[in-house]
Known about the structure:
Blueprint: H1 5-8, E1 14-18, E2 21-25, H2 28-41, H3 50-68, H4 74-94, H5 102-105, H6 108-114, H7 120-128
Antiparallel strand pairs: 1-2
Helix pairs in contact: 3-4
Amino acid sequence: MRRQRRRCDLGRPRSVSFYAGRFLRPRKRAIAALKDRIRHLTRRKRGMSLEAIIRSLNPLIRGWGNYFVEGHVAELFEDLDKWIRMRVRSYVLGRPSMRTHINRWMTTATLHDKLGLVSLVALRRRHLSPAPG
């Protein structure tokens, strides 16, 4: 069975060479695929609790972030974190039963600390920090 290369390529990191080494960056197609998957998981008509939505998002964010954490991704991770928080907030705004609690769920600290949404920036920070001991 022959597989189409375009459909099977998950977006390997592309590298940009320079005189002292290489920068790795995710391809635009890999970023678009991540956003499409997050859009699917945060559709307003899913009928799930916010906690369930975050539980379904976390493995995706963690896996994608850990795969690309080695690269030159600081700005990209910040932008994606903002975009993911916007999608989660939009989910809350689209659910009439959740609108009454909107003030508690709108802050970044609440989303990450209390509700447990994984942050790509935090994954990168954890990866760059020296190992204890």
